[in-house]
Amino acid sequence: MMHIGEEIVGYIFQNNIHELVIDLRNNGGGDLYAGLVLANALNLADPVDWKSGVYVLADKVTFSAATSNTALFRELLNAKIVGEPTGSNPTGFQDMDTFELPNSKLVICYSKRLFRIQEEFSEGVQPDIPLQYEWKSFSRGEDNMLQWVIEKIR
Predict the structure, then answer these.
(1) What angle do CA 76, 142, 54 make, to 5 degrees?
(2) Choices 2.60.120.260, 1.10.600.10, 3.90.226.10, 3.10.180.10: CATH for 19-30+49-153
(3) Would the pTM of this model clear 0.90, i.e. be above it?
(4) What's the rounded Cα separation, in Å, for the pair 12 and 46?
(5) Nearest residue to 57 via CA among 18, 84, 30, 37
């Protein structure tokens, strides 16, 4: 992941990019720490407008590590969250693991760690700019949430 972060930062410098959009919609999660490595790399990208040029897209299908990274990117990258509240809470049990019951062979999934990314429990990470998917846009192959960010950047 560090190599990818370095490539992204190099691209940002080469192209003098001032705004970033990180799309975490429809993301079931994964590795919380991959997001932290990305945030660490991005902090070296001086051309980025850290005051108002970073956006994270989220929706009700943003879960687990993607939810935690949404909250962390708000804090670490000063990102504005655009879209819907995330589908899970960044404060709670996460980091799934499994084991198999010896006789029935049923696989049990459980969360093994308690994370406290926010001080208070909330119904998902609440967006700074609440937007719902619009069927009219979607049916035309358009993304109204991303379109909002593009218009804001212009």
Answers:
(1) 15
(2) 3.90.226.10
(3) no
(4) 9
(5) 84
* Extents of the domains making up the chain: 19-30+49-153
Mind listing the pLDDT tens digit for each residue in 7-46?
999 999 999 999 999 999 999 988 889 999 999 999 999 9
- Give, in order, the Cα–Cα distances in Å from 56 to each of 28, 108, 110, 114, 147: 15, 33, 28, 24, 13
What's the one-letter identity of residue 74? R
Residue among 80, 94, 1, 81 at smallest CA distance from 39: 1
